[in-house]
Design goal:
The structure is a single chain. The chain has 257 residues and is an alpha/beta fold. The chain folds into 2 domains: 178 residues, Rossmann fold (3-Layer(aba) Sandwich), CATH 3.40.50.300; 56 residues, no CATH class. Helix content is 38%, strand content 24%. It contains 11 helices and 10 strands. The strands form 2 sheets. A 6-stranded mixed sheet has the order 6-7-8-3-9-10, with helices on both faces. A 4-stranded antiparallel sheet has the order 2-1-4-5, covered by helices on one side. Helix 3 crosses helix 5, helix 3 packs parallel to helix 6 and helix 5 crosses helix 6. The longest helix has 16 residues. Bound molecules: adenosine-5'-triphosphate.
């Protein structure tokens, strides 16, 4: 581990019955960088995210954040440390307005149920929520039901939702999946801008153009292990990566386009 390492995953193991999702997964997330995480379907990327953010327990191994073990802590405890995440399938509240979704995030430190029932927020919380909606280009939709947003707009709302807590490390699970190209560009710009402001990212994504375009470093998983890591231009020509992921993934590529 170097002084630039913000998050370190050491030898993580996780099985579901007879299925080994993680088989000794080890990786480092560099502070102040946009770190990509790629790999074929089922290679263990989301399971690793779930363990890092407390949504799954690991069988063995460790997760260190700023050098301290956060293994098997609760999602709330990990969120409070400054690690925010989005999900592959967005978790916004469709029957609340866009702004009220943001206010739920503001009050996440309270009971989740209470914040759902009373997502009013103080004037300053509402102002901050509106600033973040403006940042992701959704301010004009603040009063609309979140359920009426397009898929790409939901992804932007989830990003704004995560930013409410001002996390230092942001984990994005397939932010560009199913999103139209113009919103993908908007998302790339926002991630790059947030990174310039000092946020560190770990981004799972199948869209290679997106990953190679914004990431400073890319880690590649296959069968629950890391098989390569480094700058995108090096990783993309690594024979192990071509073999495991880029070769023979035409179906996957079609899925994501
Ligand atoms: N809750 C679960 N119960 C049983 N098996 C699971 C569970 N979660 C994950 N798995 C299995 O673990 C393996 C790794 O899955 P995971 O979702 O972590 O991969 P992934 O790399 O994120 O895949 P994708 O790119 O398709 O999202 C897969 O074989 C998956 O079926």
């Amino acid at each position: 581990m170097t002084t630039d390492t913000l998050l370190e995953v050491r030898g993580l193991h996780r099985s579901f019955g007879g299925v080994t999702a993680l088989a000794g997964c080890t990786l480092e997330v560099m502070s102040g960088k946009i770190n990509g995480l790629i790999g074929p379907n089922g290679s263990g990327k989301t399971t690793m995210f779930n363990i890092v953010t407390g949504y799954e327990r690991c069988d063995d191994g460790d997760v260190l954040y700023q050098g301290t073990s956060i293994r098997n802590r609760t999602p709330e405890a990990i969120f409070a440390l400054g690690i925010g995440r989005t999900f592959q399938l967005t978790r916004i509240f469709g029957r609340l307005s866009v702004l009220d979704n943001m206010l739920v995030a503001t009050q996440r430190k309270e009971s989740w149920v209470r914040s759902m029932l009373r997502p009013t927020g103080s004037a300053s919380e509402r102002d901050h929520a509106m600033e973040l909606l403006d940042f992701v280009g959704l301010a004009r939709l603040a009063g609309e039901l979140a359920g009426s947003l397009s898929y790409g707009q939901r992804k932007l709302l989830e990003l704004a939702y995560v930013l409410v807590a001002d996390p230092q490390l942001i984990l994005l699970d397939e932010p560009a999946g199913g999103v139209n190209p113009s919103l993908i560009n908007q998302l790339s710009e926002k991630i790059t801008e947030l990174n310039r402001q000092g946020k560190t990212f770990l981004v799972i994504e199948h869209n290679m153009e997106f990953v190679m375009g914004i990431c400073h470093s890319v880690t590649v998983m296959s069968y629950g292990c890391v098989i390569a890591a480094g700058p995108p231009e090096i990783v993309r020509t690594d024979p192990k990566v071509l073999d495991a992921y880029l070769g023979g993934t035409e179906e996957d590529d079609d899925d994501e386009s």
